[in-house]
Design a protein that fits this description.
By secondary structure, the chain is α/β, with parallel strands linked by helices. The protein is built from 5 helices and 15 strands.
């Protein structure tokens, strides 16, 4: 399975356009939160309409999975905690979102919401417990915030991580966690787009400005993950220990060239 991972698009429509054009080369596109932008001059309702249209178009090309980030929260629940209520409508497009666990080509994928308070955090814990009981094959989590004290949560000045996520990783040992949130991590000295917590691979593509988003591409059959940005590209072999500095890419991997021809 070929997977394209992005996060933190923050209503950058040129980057949504790029993802839409690239999507046909992948079996699965994962958007790990912050599709909207709270500081935008465009009102949230309009942003939601536009982004939902992009999701609809993406789903016509390939499978799509989405979790919420802190910029996506538009509603308040009975506990007074914010959540991304608008994302539920994506299920009508056959797009799994917050709270869903699905099996795609023998891989279990769990999509966790951004939690705004203790009740939502408890719900994620229950979600992961239930998914652990029924998991099949490799297990992927999509969770906007990265774990703390990791290169993928390092901004260059401090760590921005979710301690609850770290506890769940240690408890359940998923194979992969796709995150975002800390835009600077892959570019900061001491930061990175990839880390391991025990046996779990953790990824954060970061964010860059311009028409092309930072991306991570994974081929589960080849067993390789590659990160692409305007500052360069790197790759890791998923069946081998993580070694730093991470290998730089001087050319597109063969499996990605093949993806473009499919």
């Amino acid at each position: 399975m070929r997977i394209l991972i992005v996060a933190d698009l923050h209503y950058a429509l040129q980057q949504f356009d790029w993802v839409l054009q690239a999507a046909a080369g992948y079996d699965l596109v994962v958007i790990a939160g912050d599709l909207l932008e709270t500081a935008s001059m465009v009102d949230p309702g309009t942003q939601i309409v536009v982004v939902m249209n992009y999701l609809k178009r993406l789903r016509q090309v390939t499978r799509v999975l989405v979790c919420s980030g802190n910029h996506d929260l538009d509603a308040v629940d009975a506990h007074g905690e914010k959540h991304a209520g608008w994302l539920r409508a994506a299920r009508r497009l056959s797009i799994p979102v917050d709270g869903d666990t699905v099996i795609v080509d023998g891989t279990t994928i769990t999509l966790c919401p951004w939690w705004d308070g203790p009740e939502a955090m408890k719900a994620i814990g229950a979600q992961l417990e239930a998914a652990a009981a029924d998991r099949l094959g490799p297990w992927i989590w999509v969770y906007h915030a990265p774990p703390p004290d990791s290169p993928v949560s390092w901004s260059g000045q401090r760590f921005f991580g979710d301690a609850a996520l770290l506890g769940w990783i240690v408890q359940y040992r998923p194979d992969f966690v796709f995150t975002g949130h800390v835009h600077e991590a892959p570019f900061a000295r001491g930061g990175s787009w990839v880390d391991r917590v025990g046996d779990t691979w953790v990824f954060n593509a970061g964010k860059q400005y311009g028409a092309v988003p930072t991306t991570i591409a994974i081929d589960t059959e080849v067993g390789e993950a590659a990160w692409f940005s305007l500052e360069g590209a790197e790759s890791v072999r998923l069946g081998e220990p993580l070694v730093r500095p991470v290998q730089q890419l001087s050319a597109m991997p063969d499996w990605m060239l093949a993806a473009g021809k499919d």
